[in-house]
Amino acid sequence: QVQLVESGGGLVQAGGSLRLSCAASGRTPSRYAMGWFRQAPGKEREFVAAIRWGISTEYTDSVKGRFTISRDNAKNAIYLQMNSLKPEDTAVYYCAAGGRPGSVELAGQYDYWGQGTQVTVSS
């Protein structure tokens, strides 16, 4: 069994920063991608960032230059450093694992999901 647990969400003012963490338990294929998605009320789950086993990364355009995804293979964890946060970043952020490396932006290509952590950015 694979379980993903996110942490680090919270309430910040616009322009602030948060660092999200995702710890994985169980066996996740190391060659698969891990990533972050977010979902705001009434909207579909949106790709945010992903990192492949080879450390290459992908970001959605709206977070480029502000967010950074990283991976710690020894801890079986990924992180999302979020800087210059905007109200539009408000959402529940989900960690995903088991992603096919060729389609990291598609939620359906991931096998495992965390419970989500709320990020709220006030204006």
Account of the 3D structure:
The strands form two sheets. Strands 2, 4, 5, 6, 9, 10 and 11 form a seven-stranded mixed beta sheet that branches. Helices cover 0% and strands 50% of the residues. The termini are far apart. With 123 residues, the chain is mainly β. The chain has strands at 3-7, 10-13, 18-25, 33-39, 46-51, 57-59, 67-72, 77-82, 91-99, 112-113, 117-122. The model has no long low-confidence stretch (mean pLDDT 93).
Descriptive terms for the model:
single chain, 123 residues, mainly beta, seven-stranded mixed beta sheet, four-stranded antiparallel beta sheet, 11 strands, 0% helix
Quick structural summary:
This protein is mainly beta.
Given the C-alpha coordinates, what overall shape results? Answer: globular
SSE-based structural type: mainly beta
- Tell me how many strands there are: 11
Low-confidence stretches: none
Report, as a whole number of angstroms, the end-to-end distance.
40 Å
> DSSP helix count?
0
The biggest sheet, with number of strands, parallel, antiparallel or mixed sense and barrel status, is: 7 strands, mixed
β-strand percent reads over 45%
Reading the helices and strands in chain order gives EEEEEEEEEEE
Mean pLDDT: 93
What is the CA-based Rg, rounded? Answer: 13 Å
- Roughly how much helix do the residues carry, as a percent range? under 10%
Task: Describe the secondary structure blueprint for this structure.
Layout: E1 3-7, E2 10-13, E3 18-25, E4 33-39, E5 46-51, E6 57-59, E7 67-72, E8 77-82, E9 91-99, E10 112-113, E11 117-122
Parallel strand pairs: 2-11
Antiparallel strand pairs: 1-3, 3-8, 4-5, 4-9, 5-6, 7-8, 9-10, 9-11
